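quick one: DWN bound model?
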Amino acid sequence: MICRGCHANGEHDFWEFCDLGVQPLANTLLTKDQLLEPVTTYPLRPMLCEKCMLVQLPDLVSPEQTFSDYPYFSSQSATYVEHSRQHADDLIKHFLMGEAWRREHAGGEGRLVVEIASNDGYMLRHFIRGGIERVYGIEPARNVADHATKRGIPTFVDFFSSVLASKLVESKDGLVTGGRADVIIANNVLAHVPNLSSFLVGLRIMLAPEGVVSIEVPWLKDLVDGDECGTIYHEHLSYFLLHSIEYALTGQAGGLRVFDVEHFPEIHGGTMRLYLCHGSAQHEQTERVREWQSVERGWLVSAPLHHFGRQPSALKQAVWSFLLSQKVIDRYVCGYGAAAKAATVLSYCGVGPELMPWIADTTPAKWDRYLGGTQIHITTPLALTERRPDVIWVLAPNWIEEIKSKLRDQCDWHPHVAWQDGTEIRMERL
Ligand code: DWN
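yep, here:
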């Protein structure tokens, strides 16, 4: 194994982070006919690189296999849409209207914003609304990119890499007008990238001299402290600390530096947002970066990473005890939110339709499919009103407040709502 971050490859450089058994890909959503066919499973055993502290899975699955037809649409969560609107407005205010930008662009072609993994256009539409002259997305999943295109957001269907970055910067015609970007956004994509060096070099190639890259990625410290083993699945190849990203940036992918960092504990189980620029750019490093580095150092000394391996089996016990206790008193339990993290948890715990027959989800692309590895049916939220379950287990606990509020509006029979909180399943009356 070669570390994706620092390229360490010694036998003693890696340490097993946790063992989630063998599982199908989290977003394997089967049709009824496919239920009779074998499902391919892959080991889910992330390793920790002791040199750069990057937790990672080996490349077992090609990105094409995972992302060619993708059922995740960022716009499904109002909380996330609002978070992204504020993010876009902040980027415009701080980096696209300032003095540095005016100096660099006097007489130029206008501001350029590029988003990598732009999904259904949930974010870029705010830059178009904000009057930014040139905006485009890069999204590998054609079915998702089509939604963005229909919304009027130019979207280039491909995986981002150093080769693609050079091609796009040089491009003179067509959808992409070429040139270097003033702002590059890469939210919830770094974890999915097999060739991290090529990705980071691509950012450097594509970034204007005083431009800014804004990256959001789940923070490993939140994953560990919050016991969130559900967010470990094959799509997520890497689990980052700021430390491991800075390590990668000083290696082969050098040339960029982190100048600011922010924490969003409520987004996707705990997200860090990093701001990067060229090493020679004028953006000064903030005090927040030094504080963050020191928090991570102190945390690593307490060695929590070495204890995480116990978390999955503790969660399995909690899940079984919750489901069996409901079965004993004859309560009808359904799920809500067929998230990728739900697939990991249910598959690892061995939960099937006999304990939870269906999951409601607002995403049309998931309806009438079965969660691979569990064979649980996914259906529309209308099923809640029709079947009036006693307990609704929210399987996307990262959006618990938003979902509870929707359920309060829809479920006038006041069912119980359950959700995972670390290694516990909490439950309350709606
Ligand atoms: O990196 C990734 C991220 C950030 O999101 C991906 N690889 C895939 C995805 O992970 P996920 O599937 O675990 O994400 P969510 O956002 O936790 O998924 C929530 C699910 O719940 C979606 O299927 C949409 C659904 N949902 C719903 O039915 N009603 C969500 C909300 C908020 C709702 O109100």
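The longest strand covers residues 207-218.
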